[in-house]
Amino acid sequence: FWDWGGGVGLSRITTLMPKKEKEEGKQKRTRRENLLLGEYAINNGITTTAKKWGVSFHTARYWKRIVKLEKGDPLMRSLPGGPRIGSFKFAPSDRGMIELIIWWALKDFDPLLNILEMCELLEEFGYDVKREYVRQIFVSWKWSWKRPSYIQMHKYLPANLRLYESYVRWILDEDVAHVKFVDEVHFDAKDCSRRSAVSPIGERIIQPRSDDIKTRFTVTCMVGLDEESPFLAFRENANTANDFFNYFADAIEAGYLKSGDVLVMDNSAVHGGAGTLSELYSLADQVDVRIRFLPAYSPEVIPSPCI
To answer: Alpha-carbon torsion 83, 87, 91, 94, what sign?
Structure first.
C-alpha cells in the first residue's frame, strides 16, 4: 500500500521539511506514525489534525500530501527527480482540463465569476486548485481584469425591436427641420473627484475641500438638427416630472418649440410621470407639437447625449 513504485527520491522530500519539524519527527514519531497522521489529516482536515496530534499546521499538511502521493492521488503529481511538495504542479492533461473548465465557466456559464468562485467550481470537478494557480493561467492567456459593460437585454425583445424599426422608418421620412430631441444629464460633485493618488504604503491621502461634495446638478438639453444652439436648463439636484413639465412650457414660451414640431424623448420617469403626462399632451396639442417616445433603452438614436 505504501509502495512508492520504484522510488522517487524520499531524501528530496525530507529535505523540504522544516528543520525543527524533521527533528521532531525523528524523535517523537516513526514514519508509520507520520503516515497515519497524514491519513488522519485527509479524513479530518489539517487544522483538526494539528490540534489532535500536537503538531504544527505545516507538518499536518506536509504528511497529508505525502500520503496522497503514496496512494497515487492524480491531483498530487510528481516532477522529474522526485515529488515536489511545496508547489506541486498538475500533469499536462490535468492542466488542460482545468483550463477547459475555466474557459467554459467564463464563456458559457458566468463571465463575472471571481477567482475564489472558480476555485470552488474546479473543486466540484475534483481539482484542488489554489487562487494563485488560476491567476497564473490568466497570465499565460494574457487576460486581465476589467470593468464589465452591461447590456440591457429588454432592448432586444421582439416587441421593442418592432418599435425600433418603426422609429427608424419614421425618422427617415420625417422633415428633420421640425424634429427636436430632449434628454437630461446628471452631475454628482463627488464623482468629479480624483479616484486615486499615490502615497507611501499604509498612509492615507486626505485632501481638504471647501466645496460641498454632496452637490448634484441636472442639465436638461433640447436640440434640433437645424438649430444653431440647444435649449438648456440647469437645476440643482435631480429633475422631477413637474420640473420637466415646466421646462417643456419654457421651451414653448421661448419659441424653441414651435407649431408643427415633433419632440422626441426617452421613457424616463420624469418625461412620462403619471401626474403630468396628460397635462404635457394637453399643452402640446394647444401649440400643435407632437410627442414621440423612443424605443426602450435606445439612447443612441438621438443626438442629445452627444452634446
So the answer is: positive
